[in-house]
Amino acid sequence: MNVPADTPVTPRRRPRNLAQGLVESITERIRGGDIRPGEKLPTESEIMRQFGVSRTVVREALSRLQASGLVETHHGVGTYALEPSGGGDFRVDPADIATVRDVLVLLELRICLESEAAGLAAARRSPEQLHEMRRALEAFKSALENDGDTVTPDFQFHLLVAQATDNRYFADLMSHLGSAIIPRTRINSAKFAHEDRAAYLARVNLEHEDIYSAIQRQDAEAARAAMRTHLSNSRERLRRAQ
Fold first, then answer.
1. How big is the CA angle at 242 (ends 233 and 97), to the nearest 5 degrees?
2. What are phi and psi of 73, to 5 degrees?
3. Ramachandran class of 179: left when φ > 0, alpha when ψ lies in -120 to 50, beta otherwise
4. Which InterPro entries match (predicted)?
5. What is the rounded distance in angstroms from the CA atom of residue 206 to the CA atom of residue 193?
6. 122: helix, coil or strand?
7. Taking Cα atoms as reference points, which of 62, 70, 74 lies closest to residue 34?
8. Cα–Cα 20 to 30 A to 81, which of 31, 63, 184, 241?
9. What are phi and psi of 4, to 5 degrees?
10. For the chain, how far is it from start to end, CA to CA, in angstroms?
11. What is d(CA 224, CA 112) in angstroms, rounded to the nearest whole number?
């Protein structure tokens, strides 16, 4: 059943970022049952009209929703809602992650969660999952070189690591957290690191490569250490800035 074209998809509060505001609104409708699993979302043109945003913003938002596992897109057909993963009552509202302190608290959780996830992923990942991680890293690198959206492939890489644990609760928790886990969706991370955006993101890319390399060679301890280093670097930069 299609969602009526005149059904508004508007956020309750002013978004900090147009694409993120759109992600939050559609996520709320899917988790709240207003858009049921299997239903087709409004067309890109209709969402553009409702929100007054560009096609680029709409596509970025849909890409993030797809990375979060909330929608799937069939090219030439449309985008459809998926069944939200279990534990739908757990939710971090991105609008509540607004300060450096908020990001630091979330990073503490991520260090504990994702370091162990990386170790499990190294031991349990499949060749197909490893291939998908490689694709996410290549997408990140391409976006970096072309000044594009690096948030989506960044989040997708971390989500893929969680999925490779073969423990659905890791992936469920990451999906619920969504792209809000990426600090630069909340604050200017490069500014806090006292370097330009390109240099900051290049360093993030290298840290991702270290994690991938350890998972690829199935070195669980190295994978845990690489993930802990990656997230701890972000935490320490913010602590110094604070």
1. 80
2. -110, 130
3. alpha
4. GntR_C, TF_FadR/GntR_C, Tscrpt_reg_HTH_GntR, WH-like_DNA-bd_sf, WH_DNA-bd_sf
5. 16
6. helix
7. 70
8. 184
9. -55, 140
10. 49
11. 10
| Lookup result for tokens 């997708």 | 156
H or E segment at 20?
helix 18-32
* CA 232 to mean position of chain CA atoms: 18
Structure tokens at 112: 């504990």
Handedness of CA 236, 238, 241, 242 (dihedral sign): negative
Q: What is the pLDDT of residues 97-122, one digit of tens each?
A: 557 677 788 889 899 999 999 999 99
* Amino acid code (one letter) for 60: E
Q: What is the pTM of this model?
A: 0.62
SS3 for 71? Answer: strand
Q: What are phi and psi of 175, to 5 degrees?
A: -65, -40
Indicate the helix (H) or strand (E) that contains 79: strand 78-81
Collapsing DSSP to helix, strand or coil, 109 comes out as helix
- On whether the CB atoms of residues 149 and 59 are closer than 8 A, the answer is no
CA angle 154, 174, 202 (to 5 degrees): 15
Count CA within 13 A, CB hemisphere, residue 163. Answer: 18
CA distance 184 to 103: 10
